[in-house]
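Changelog-adjacent note: as of this version, every example in the card shows the full chain rather than a window. The one below runs 145 residues end to end.
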Amino acid sequence: MDDIKEQIVNYLSRRRFLTLATSTQKGDPLTHPIAYVNKEDTIYFSTGTQTRKFKNIQNNPNVAYSVYDPTDHLEEVISVQMEGKATPVTDKKEINEINKMLNLKFPNMSYLIKNEDSIIIKISPKSCYFMDYSKGFSYRDTVEY
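Full-length structure tokens:
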């Protein structure tokens, strides 16, 4: 794995929440706060099959998300801005593995995973901007997958 991809994975691994952007049935953008886990640069989260985000993903699996730490100083901005494809996970072994990871990272939310309506979504990366303003205003590395 190259250095920038490794930095992205490390950054994602140390955070807990992201803002997911989907498109509504009418094509309008909509954002969702998401608790997630990652395996390398692939993101996983649990949601209900009746949620707007799941219905939006079914209609258009192309999504984007950002992960960042709020700061009062522009020169401290570091973030991941990722474009990817969201798909439901259907492999039982993978579902069990991700549910265990979610339980470890978010033990107070384990009841959500047990809901009959729950589904695991995987976001496979397409392209990423890794922003680091400590290297200069608007500095970013671009990674294509």
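Structural remarks: The radius of gyration is 15 Å.
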